[in-house]
Amino acid sequence: MSDRFPLSNKYHPEWLIAGFSGGANPLWLTEWLTISLDLQPGMRVLDLGCGRALSSIFLKLEFDVEVWAVDLWFSASENLKRIRDAGVEQRVYPIHAEARALPSLTSFSMLSLRLALTHISELTITT
């Protein structure tokens, strides 16, 4: 827990630990990213490299956005269970995919990459 991340502090530590997919706290990273964004309810967010979808669940619960939770290394079915357990399956959609295999990204209000950039080569985003 950290005073710097009041939104993240609402979530149970055991849920966070069970959902970590790397060394960094996904909620802290996502909360830090959203500080400078004007996320509005209903916006469409592509959470690329979402890991175990904790960041996607966080975005839906805290900002009421619609989230496509995309990850190559974690199964969509595993993430769907976590998403259902959080009660957000109507607005968070797990996808197992490689970034370059995705269709046009222009229909999203925000693209969240966080740590995924270190694993993506030759990804071109056009608007």
Describe this protein's structure.
The chain has a single domain (8-115), classed as Vaccinia Virus protein VP39 (Rossmann fold, 3-Layer(aba) Sandwich), CATH 3.40.50.150. It has helices at residues 13-19, 26-34, 54-63, 76-85; strands at residues 44-48, 66-71, 92-96, 110-112. The protein is globular, with a radius of gyration of 14 Å. The model is unreliable at 115-121 (pLDDT under 50). By secondary structure, the protein is α/β, with parallel strands linked by helices.
What's the CATH topology label? Rossmann fold
- Note the main sheet: 4 strands, parallel
Q: How does CATH name the architecture?
A: 3-Layer(aba) Sandwich
The domain count comes to: 1
Low-confidence stretches: 115-121
Helix content: 25-40%
What is the end-to-end distance? 38 Å
Shape descriptor reads globular
Write down the overall mean pLDDT: 85
CATH superfamily name?
Vaccinia Virus protein VP39
Query: How much strand?
Result: 5-15%
CATH C-level label: Alpha Beta
Q: Could you give the order of the helices and strands? A: HHEHEHEE
Strand sequence of the main sheet, in spatial order? 3-2-1-4
Indicate the structural class: alpha/beta
Tally of contiguous helical segments: 4
Radius of gyration, in angstroms, nearest whole number? 14 Å
* Number of strand segments: 4
